[in-house]
Amino acid sequence: MRQGVRIAAAVIAILFGAGASAASLAEKFQPGVPYYFENFDPAMKPWDPGQDLNIEEVFKNYVYYEIIFDQSGREITVNRYLQNRKESSDRFLVRPDRSLEAK
Question: CA separation (Å) from 81 to 7, 48, 62, 67, 85?
Fold first, then answer.
C-alpha cells in the first residue's frame, strides 16, 4: 500500500514538473513573435532554445534560426536561414517533457 502511494506521489511530481517546464517556455516566449538564435538542436532533452538574439546580432552570421511559438506554446516553427535567405522551415511539437517531436 505504501509503495503504491509513493509511486503515485512520484508520478504526480513528474507530471507537475513537466507542466512547469512547458509553462516556463510559454512565459518566456510570446506566441507569434519571431525569436532568433545562432543554434538549434531538436535532439536536446529537455529542449531549451537558449538566449535569443536580436536580428542585427544574427544577421551577420552565415547560418541562423528563427523560432516562432504558436498560440498554445506547444508547437514551434523553426526557419533556418543561410546567408540571410530562408533555406528550410520545420514544425515541431513541444512534448510535456520538453523534448521535440517533428511534425
Answer: 46, 20, 8, 11, 5
Q: Encode pLDDT of 51-84 as tens digits.
A: 899 888 888 889 999 999 999 889 999 999 999 9
The pLDDT of residue 23 is 54
Task: Give me the domain span that covers residue 17.
Answer: 2-102
* CA 29 – CA 47 distance, rounded (Å): 14
By three-state DSSP, how is residue 18 classified? helix
User: DSSP assignment of 56-102, as one string?
Assistant: HHHHTSSEEEEEEE-TTSSEEEEEEEETTEEEEEEEEEE-TTS-EEE
Mean pLDDT of 76-94: 96
How many domains does one find in the chain? 1
Alpha-carbon distance of 19 to 17, in angstroms, equals 5
pLDDT one-digit tens code per residue, 40-50: 999 999 999 98
Which three cell numbers, joined as nine digits, stand for 54?
A: 536580436
Task: Report the alpha-carbon distance of residue 97 to residue 79 in Å, rounded.
Answer: 23
